[in-house]
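Researcher: Before we compare anything, I want clean individual predictions. No alignment, no superposition, just each chain on its own. First chain goes here; please echo the sequence and then give the structure tokens.
Model: Echoing the first chain and its structure:
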Amino acid sequence: MSVVGILPWQSALWSVVTEARANEKLAHALLLAGPAGVGKRQFARALAQALLCESPGARGTACGQCRGCVQFDAGSHPNLFWLQPLYDEKNDKQKRDISVEQLRDLGEKLVLSAHYGGSKVVVMDPVDALNVSGVNALLKTIEEPPPKTYMLLVSERPMALAATLRSRCQRLRFAPPSDEQARAWLREQQPALTGANLDRALDLAQGAPLRALAAHQSGLLEQHGKWRSDWLDVAAQKRAPTAAALAVGKDREQVSAWIAAFIAFLGELLRARVGGPQAADLGTIPSRVAMPGLQAMLDEAFESARRITTSASPQLVVESLMIAWWRWSMARGGASG
């Protein structure tokens, strides 16, 4: 049987949890909060397995051999509950919200006695997917938790959660590891990811190693290279902004990834402008950047990221952002790539 391990940069957080468990002070509701790609979900799985293990090790890790670990590994442990937005077969998409009905069904199950007299564990991923009614239903469970019940709430936008919910949880803050840790882990996972590709993967992922690895494995890193060429060509007046926008497509997830990559690109320009390392293909752009204009472009990009989560047309969002980028380039008198 397998044991879910924590990532190298999570040791301090694991020690906090282990000490709390040993002193019987582990909160019933834990908010695992941090950016995407830093390992919150792997930590949640490791902790869920450890809480259900019947013979945990000295560091609080699961044994991988007991009845609880065998059932966890098979995905059939009767005391483990995963809550995520359901899949909508009619629209062939995952729903946006965790429904109130799911919360009510969970509440009915949690009041029943736990199998084997052990703990019950709920992993809610993401807790951001709760609407107002869902939050109210969850609060009732958190305020009067059944004995030996633990709720692991995963969030990438903790400040968007209701203050009443945040205040009732023990928060575990997940942050990207150091650059050295991230690079060492990525080289171990994917030896072929080296040099400039490794730099760009981490830059695209804003230092989050799991996102960087996923970008490499999914081909997003290669796609990012094509997008980058388009941005530089638009800035150099070699490509029309509408043509660059058309090449992105209309798929909302693809556009969301494109916007995230463009924000990372603008961040790279900003760092180069203030004396940081500069990629050769940026040419003279950083030295000619007007800081107020670059900040305005970043604001526009972040607004585009917000709009893409609404019903706004993905194609129009991209076109608007590329036209803004083109105008910014024109205002500076052009840019060479």
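Researcher: Okay. Second chain, same rules.
Model: Second chain and its structure:
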Amino acid sequence: MRALIIVDVQNDFLPGGSLAVPNGNEVIDVINELQAQYSLVVATQDWHPRRHQSFASAHPRKKPFEQITLHGLKQVLWPDHCVQESHGAAFTAELKMAAVEAIFRKGMDVTIDSYSGFFDNGRKKATGMVDFLKGRGVTEVDVCGLAADYCVYFTANDALDLGFKARMLDFATRPIDLANYEAIKIAFAAKGGEVLTD
């Protein structure tokens, strides 16, 4: 069975949000229409505590988008975003949620970021999504949402590592950095993933 994973279609990643993905709003209607093609739909949600260590504001004299080493891992410092129980962390009201069977929250450990819907960036803690999907007999996943070159890619890449056949839905995602995303697509396909353009 193939499942659809909707990644982080939250207010802070949309126009007007604190970490808006360029043209991120363009994916909403596409994802709403896609959902009817799947018998199982799940979603991920960035859900950071205040003063998360991936926020530039947690590091004096550091600015958003600078890169540091955080507990042994490379870390981009982000603007504060998707803070638990904030408007920015909520799914956009335009996203249809009736078919979404489960929501997997990530980024809840204040000490480590979590791009993937399956694990934190150090792969120290799992979100539970792999067990849920395998328990439902899922063997293939299609990944869409925001942002293409971070959370969508990391989720799809981990899906490959976990034994799923994985596809990134290029037409239902948008990147933060287009050049980075183009390189990622090539690497993902070389690893055995598929990038669907329409």
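Researcher: What stands out in the second chain?
Model: The CA atoms of residues 44 and 166 lie 16 Å apart. Additionally, The chain has a mean pLDDT of 96.
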